[in-house]
Amino acid sequence: MYYSIPLTQRLRKNVKSLSHKNFRDENSIFLVEGEKLCKELLTSSFIPEVVVIRDMPSIEIVNLLEQFSEKAIPIYNTPKHVFDQMTDAKSPQSIVAVVHKKQMVLDPALPFIALDGVSDPGNVGTIVRTAEWFGIKQVILTNGTADIYNPKVVRSTMGSIFRMNYFETDDLPTLLKKEYSKFKIYGASLQSENELEKIKVPKNFGLVFGNESRGISEEVAKKITGDFLISGFGSAESLNVAVSVGISLYHFTKK
Length: 255
What we know:
Blueprint: E1 5-6, H1 9-17, H2 21-27, E2 29-33, H3 35-42, E3 48-54, H4 59-70, E4 75-78, H5 80-83, E5 95-100, E6 112-116, H6 121-133, E7 138-142, H7 151-157, E8 165-169, H8 172-179, E9 184-188, E10 205-210, H9 218-221, E11 226-228, H10 241-253
């Protein structure tokens, strides 16, 4: 059994403000949306602060609410027209949770993906999800990369955000030099003459992917071991960066 109370004006405003990075950073919280992600949240080590539901929840949502209630998480309810205005999702689902961020610590022993200015939230979320699929548990994000806690990023991870280690840095070149001097680090580049499939995969590696239009920055390019090109056979100008990550990880993780 669960109990819910009417949504307050203040909480409504706070939930809506979670679409802004400054508000997320100042309060160290972020938004989790939908039945699937809230279900994943319940089995993760992340701590929910509150849950907000749309009136007349489904049986599946009620089951989730009972689990949140067992954890003593406050539950608020609100009419559909109010609920739908609180998120930027095109088709809002009937449950959201406000969740505390976790303090992540870089693990220099883990292989990693580094995103150097990947700005599209959908791409970043898909990359996190893809990295988990291929067994890569660590993602490094630079300034200029979409915030890992952006609601669209969170939605696009499809729950992988709860199981990954991610680390933000404003100085990727120094980080690579200091923490990964014994790693082989490769960067994806359209200008490379080295074909991906010809790279011999080392035991310890990191992969760097740059901005969707500009690629890897000059400063970061100076710190990598080498670059590579994903060979194509059609006339398209380039690959989506998330697709590039998937193809690259298939090569670097296959046995």
